Amino acid sequence: MEKKQISRRQLLQGSAILGTAMLLPLDSLRAIPLPSGKTPAITLEEMAAIDAALGKKGIYKEAEAVYTVPLPRNDLKMKIKGEPVPIPFGFGGWVSFKKTTNGKSAMVMSDTVLQQEEVNTLISAAHAQGLEIAAIHNHFFYEEPRIFYMHIHGMGNIADLAKKYADTIRGSKLFPANQPAPSPASAIPALTGKENFDIPSLDAIVKYTGTVNGPTYKYTIGRADLKIMAMGVEMTANIGLNSWASFAGKQEDAHIAGDIAMLQEEVNTVIKVLRSHDLEIVAVHNHMLGDDPHMIFLHYYGRGNAVKLANGFRAALDVLGKKNSDSMGGMRM
Hints:
The N and C termini lie far apart (about 40 Å). By secondary structure, the chain is an alpha+beta fold. The strands form 4 sheets. A 6-stranded antiparallel beta sheet has the order 1-2-5-6-9-7. It has a 6-stranded antiparallel beta sheet with strand order 10-11-14-15-18-16. The protein has a 3-stranded antiparallel beta sheet with strand order 4-3-8, with no helix packed on it. About 25% of the residues lie in helices and about 30% in strands. It is built from 8 helices and 18 strands. The chain has 2 domains: about 40-175, Yope Regulator, Chain: A (2-Layer Sandwich); about 195-330, Yope Regulator, Chain: A (2-Layer Sandwich). The chain has helices at about 10-20, 45-55, 120-130, 160-170, 195, 200-205, 265-275, 305-320, and strands at about 60, 65-70, 80, 85, 90-100, 105-115, 130-135, 145, 145-155, 210-215, 215-220, 230, 235, 240-250, 255-265, 280-285, 290, 295-305.
């Protein structure tokens, strides 16, 4: 009799629907409807377990029931085209936790910032803990040193996931305890994004309010027009389903980098719009596995007056949620 091997992916998917699947015959599993309703909250005890595992406190977004711990690479000194850029511009990773809508399992999702020589060591560490790799790719051109971004995910209960994730990154620079201590405060306060940019003018263009993070200013915008499910979890802005734009430099001479979260049929229209605003397309790829509908993420970069750059970002946002007849994703064979 032939024995079938169960993959890690099947185990992860099974943990998200196990409670329902046990009541159904095997051939009915594909007919299980997506769960609906509000995602259960992460408890204070679960947050404490995450903090203890990682040695760092996170941030809870109650509206999305997502708990996130930032993982910036403050050990790096980054340059783009030879010019120094701050770590918050786009070199800060994160790990987030969110429960399935039925509350029977939870997801860990992480975007890690890695030098080339760090990638495969972390892959092996993640697999040793039963976690999965969802994507490996670039977010930038011209950066020094060369950086890759690896998305790690897994399913289970939150305390176990926190421990597995902590054990995965413990030997790397990602682990908070392995990051350099904060520098002593300078006698001369550093300029922040509030002083570097005309924030009211940018907000008026983008039609959202951003966040000041050190010398940068960043917009993070979800897809409120969509309901994206992955392994029983509703994917929202703070667990990685977002479009963003980060500004560094000065109002008159700014860098912009960011990401647009798109349905497949939106991809080429977004590319055309960004190029028409002189923004460079850096990468087009997935971030997630098992998401439905499947999302594609586009990274872009630009340099110039912040107002012009913001207009390009806004134009890309205007494409989202509209039917685009000229998109290749809408072609029929």
